[in-house]
Design brief:
By secondary structure, the chain is mainly β. It has two helices and 15 strands.
Length: about 260
């Protein structure tokens, strides 16, 4: 009677992951049909990630094709827990089970759709700050020009990683802070390390204290670096995947070198 296709689901940031899943329903019969409701379940590594039952009351003329947007509300905590249990694995299965309930002159009919997709396990890269090196200090603007040298480590064995749309914020001790965007696509091969140098303008909240600490070699301090980016995964010899939002935090101690 009909054809049901899963198209895609786009993940967005938020306290929970709220988005829309597109499916295509096609009435292949020569008469009008009514779709009462749709049920869908998405499992990652055999664990249920999304499960929804959505009333539709959609009327389709003969041979009509419709794209339906179904709501998704996913627990970020649950997703992270599943990914944590997948640690050490490069790939897993994403299983999709869906059915639509049709009202026809023959009564209610259920149409099933199932698909299993082999996907890489999202493994955020490790970020380490090698050093922060100062270039010059503008006393009037209270801006310290510097470079942050990062080491990005891809621990995956079979997955190429790309980071794009990178936004960073950094707090250094109690006197320095910086925030900005990196206009660069960063690629990291499997089981490899990539160096990234970010030129930054660091706002100095207490310039005299910072200058004294640098000049007297008391400029060893702690930092917190927070990165937000979109991560694209490429299984080796396979096509790329949809970008995944990632957040990475790195902490440690640094010295503002003279």
């Amino acid at each position: 009677f009909s054809k049901l296709n899963f198209i895609n689901a786009t993940i967005k940031n938020g306290d929970s992951i709220q988005s829309k899943m597109d499916i295509v329903v096609q009435n292949k019969s020569p008469y009008k049909l009514s779709i009462d409701s749709i049920y869908f379940k998405v499992s990652l590594n055999k664990e249920v990630l999304i499960e929804e039952f959505v009333p539709l009351y959609l009327i389709q003329k003969r041979y009509q094709v419709d794209t339906i947007k179904l709501p998704i509300d996913l627990s970020r905590k649950k997703l992270r827990a599943i990914l944590a249990r997948l640690k050490g694995n490069d790939s897993t299965n994403l299983d999709i089970h869906c059915y639509a309930i049709y009202n026809t002159f023959l009564g209610r009919i259920k149409l099933n759709y199932e698909k299993s997709i082999h996907i890489p396990v999202p493994v955020p890269p490790q970020i380490k700050v090698v050093k922060v090196e100062r270039k010059k200090f503008n006393m009037s603007d209270k801006i310290l020009s510097a470079t942050i040298q990062l080491k990005i480590i891809n621990v995956g064995k079979n997955i190429d990683l790309q980071l794009q749309h990178i936004h960073y914020s950094m707090e250094i001790g109690h006197t320095l802070s910086s925030e900005g965007d990196v206009d660069k696509l960063v690629s990291i091969k499997p089981e490899s390390i990539t160096a990234l140098e970010i030129p930054v303008d660091i706002k100095v909240d207490r310039p005299l204290k910072a200058i004294v600490e640098i000049l007297t070699d008391h400029d060893q301090t702690n930092y917190i670096l927070h990165l937000k980016a979109e991560m694209i995964e490429h299984m080796v010899d396979k096509s790329s995947q949809t970008p995944i939002p990632v957040e990475i935090e790195a902490t440690g101690g640094i010295e503002l070198k003279k």
